[in-house]
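@channel sequence for tomorrow's demo:
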Amino acid sequence: MAKVSLSTKIHIPLIGSLVLGLIIILGISWNGINEIKPVIHQNEKSKIKDMMNEKIHAKYFATLTNAITLGHNGDVGTALRFNDIAFVGATLKNLTNDFKQNSDFKNVKIHVHTKDGFSFLRHWSDKRGDDLKSFRKTIRKVMNDKKPFVALEVGRDGLAFRGISPVIDDGGTYQGSIEFMAGFASVLKDLKVEDGIDSVLLLSSKYKDLSENFKQNVSIGNYMIINKSESANDKLLSEIKPEFIEKDYAVSDNYFMTSTPLKDIDGEIIGYLLGIE
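structure tokens (generated this afternoon):
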């Protein structure tokens, strides 16, 4: 039997110990990574949700403030009282031009309603006289409460922030209401420019028949894409799985995703804003 050298006797156990130690270290590191991943994901989720909610709440506040300002415009109250459509039309044209030139509201829409819940004037359309209270909860609310408020509501023009304020004439009489409508475009833009977050606006597919425009939209499960940040390309969209939308957060092959629910005036979820990094 060949003799084993002293060097071999020393090195074999040493190498074995080193290999065993390396395996133990790798095992501990792997377990440590797996344990810390959920913490990292929770922190990332909270960060993105906070950014999205901050932008949404800022838009809520600005929309409500503008609606209240419009509600105190004496010209609108006088026009409603005397049914002067031409006068209020000219007034709204001037107001919308001011918003476009002096604020971030570039695509604002203003809608004036009569005190009995009918459309008095849409500044962007000739359509008027339709019964709004029959299908719009927000119109019934302002008629009943006669107080300003803001809500998300779906219409034929899409999902919008709608600030609605009662219009009271100089004599203190309720003459109707005025609505300041603003979309999500600036929210999506600010998330990308200020925070580096891509975003996708999703609306429940139950509204698909409400507008011809919706029928052209891409669907993901029970939701349809109605807007997105400019940099949200096809590759990114292809990684959004239906089950990701309502989850607290999700990780795809290349992206981290989390969402915030969008609710109507009754607290019903009508869609989601998905933040992606």
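heads up for whoever presents: The two ends are 66 Å apart (CA to CA).
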